Amino acid sequence: MTESNKKTLRIATYNIHKGMSAFNRRHVLPALKHALGGLTADLVFLQEVQGEHQARAQRHHDWPEHPQHAFLADDQLHHVYGPNAAYQHGHHGNALLSRHPISSWHNHDISLSKLERRGLLHSQVLLPGRDLPLHALCVHLNLRANDRRVQLAALADYVVAHIPADAPLVVAGDFNDWRQEACGFLREALDLREAFHSLHGRVAASFPARLPLLALDRIYLRGMHVEHAEAHSGKSWGQLSDHAPLTATVRLN
């Protein structure tokens, strides 16, 4: 939140591809951290965060000593991590970085098979001057359309059961929704509006990062008004991940 207006919040979502370049040739997390800092976001929703990978840690001299979410947050941001996929050398999942305290968090499993382990990372963020916490759900859905429909329904059920209808809510992440079915479903089920769609009448293309063609990443909102939304793509971002990050500046109601 800016000093001049504490009702304004800057939100980012980014699939960081486990800190590796688009074809897994290079470890790019230090450069990615610098680029993320340039976004000056208050809340950063991250997907494909490597909590641990012993083989890559041995292979790359600049592999961080701490888990990737802690490395990216440094001492500047609060952070939580929800591991979803575990394997021989480690695990990865979703994370949230926040300039404001995180009062509680929970990782809710929405996996449909052993091949694609997915979760909803639910955090409650304490904003200055606000009685109600902001609820933040970091999401990464399956590749198959039928699976995504089941997971969207599970997401809606979870929100109805666990988040008050009058609480501000952000649901952001990698929806893999190239068919663009999520916007209509989440609007009808939860009164969530996508940031780019609200401003421009369309969702933002974010994949591949160098020259985006598919709209896979989203920022859905409830209880706030969108002032600005931007997809950060091009050659420099294409060297850091296969996805482009999205940012939205919003004003809380």
Automatic annotation (TrEMBL):
Residues covered by the Endonuclease/exonuclease/phosphatase domain: 12-243
One Gene Ontology MF term: endonuclease activity
Entries under InterPro entries matching the protein: Endo/exonu/phosph_ase_sf (IPR036691), Endo/exonuclease/phosphatase (IPR005135), GPI-anchor_lipid_remodeler (IPR051916)
Top-level lineage group: Bacteria
Protein keywords: Endonuclease, Hydrolase, Nuclease
Keyword hit for Nuclease: yes
Protein name (Swiss-Prot/TrEMBL): Endonuclease/exonuclease/phosphatase family protein
Organism the protein comes from: Chitinimonas viridis
